[in-house]
Design goal:
single chain, mainly alpha, two-stranded antiparallel sheet, 12 helices, 1% strand
Length: 352
């Protein structure tokens, strides 16, 4: 547990202390958030709020993870390095997107094709890497099988696995990006899912097939270190949330939302819990689904299901206060995490 605690503590401290320094730098450079003119009217007052706060989040997570291994005098594992690569790579794509927005003073950054291409390149490198680097027992960071609580069914092969990983990466990163519409909503929701992966990583380590054979053991390559990664990103996320909670002093921007999406999906793939992520991140799935429903229904009928999508803006236009929406959505996300962890432990319940 020592590496996990060190990673969380160091990244939390850096997030807490580094974010105000970043705020001062961004204010000095004049890098303020651009707001869509056709968005929620009350958001126009947020124009100029410092952005790209996800930069601190990513740096804090990397330093927290490094500090954990320095304190324990151990080498990083390939599974953790791949997840951190995905997190950082998507964060860089988001940073470029954010920089274009503030530099050109517009609400749109990278063109959608350029943004998607960046995510695809990072995702392919991650997915291919996950099928290489076997350990002593010839287990790689990920398996070319679908997974829920663990792998199931036949192998889908390396090519379909890479395609499947890209679908998950695009969906999760864009889902967190859509969730990042209100102060503290995305960082709080993602933090809860990361906390679940700290627990999952540690439990898989204690029930590893490499230490003791058991009918329910987990053949996960580096579960304990994946828990350390989750703890490092969690600490950074909560440190940032101190300044991002409503009313936000800074926004994470696409830098943070894409990076957090990368961390979540990377952990899901390397812990063999891909479909379980849809339950753990239930709020993010709901918000993403609201956009799909809104767009699809409008194209078919020219009518809207919601007053505005994503879902949080529907409730804003219905008269809910921003803090009310954030807290209630956090409660929903907490229930999703509790339900997901309950399912994860279900196979370990006593059998009659």
């Amino acid at each position: 547990m020592k590496p996990t605690l060190v990673a969380a503590a160091v990244s939390l401290a850096i997030g807490l202390l580094g974010t105000p320094l970043w705020i001062r730098l961004v204010v000095r450079l004049g890098y303020g958030q651009m707001i869509r003119e056709d968005g929620v009217e009350t958001h126009l007052k947020k124009r100029g709020t410092p952005t790209m706060g996800g930069t601190v989040l990513v740096v804090a997570a990397l330093l927290g993870y490094a500090a954990a291994h320095l304190a324990n005098q151990t080498a990083p594992t390939i599974s953790a390095v791949l997840v951190l690569f995905l997190t950082t790579g998507l964060g860089i794509v988001g940073f470029i997107d954010d920089y274009i927005k503030v530099f050109k003073q517009r609400s749109l950054g990278l063109r959608s094709r350029a943004k998607a291409a960046g995510i695809i390149v990072i995702g392919v490198i991650f997915a291919v890497g996950c099928l290489h680097f076997p350990n002593t027992w010839q287990v790689t960071p990920a398996s070319p099988k679908l997974s829920f609580l663990r792998d199931f069914g036949p192998s889908i092969g390396p090519y379909l696995f890479v395609l499947w990983a890209l679908v998950l990466i695009q969906a999760t990163s864009n889902g967190v990006n859509l969730t990042d519409g209100l102060d503290g909503l995305a960082s709080g929701a993602a933090g809860m899912v990361l906390a679940a992966y700290v627990i999952i990583g540690n439990w898989q380590f204690r029930q590893s097939c490499f230490s003791a054979l058991d009918p329910h053991c987990y053949p996960t390559r580096d579960p304990l270190d994946l828990g350390v990664v989750a703890a490092a990103v969690l600490g950074a996320c909560f440190g940032f949330l101190w300044w991002n909670a409503p009313p936000a002093k800074i926004f994470m921007g696409d830098t943070g939302s894409l990076a957090l999406g990368g961390a979540l999906v990377g952990l899901a793939i390397t812990t063999h819990t891909e479909f379980l992520l849809a339950i753990l991140a239930g709020l993010i799935v709901m918000i993403t689904a609201s956009v799909i429903i809104q767009v699809g229904f409008f194209k078919m009928t020219h009518k809207r299901v919601f007053k505005m999508a994503p879902l949080q803006h529907h409730f804003e236009l219905s008269g809910w206060a921003e803090t009310t929406i954030v807290v209630r959505f956090w409660l929903i996300q907490g229930l999703c995490v509790a339900g997901g962890l309950g399912l994860f432990y279900l196979e370990w319940s006593p059998q009659k």
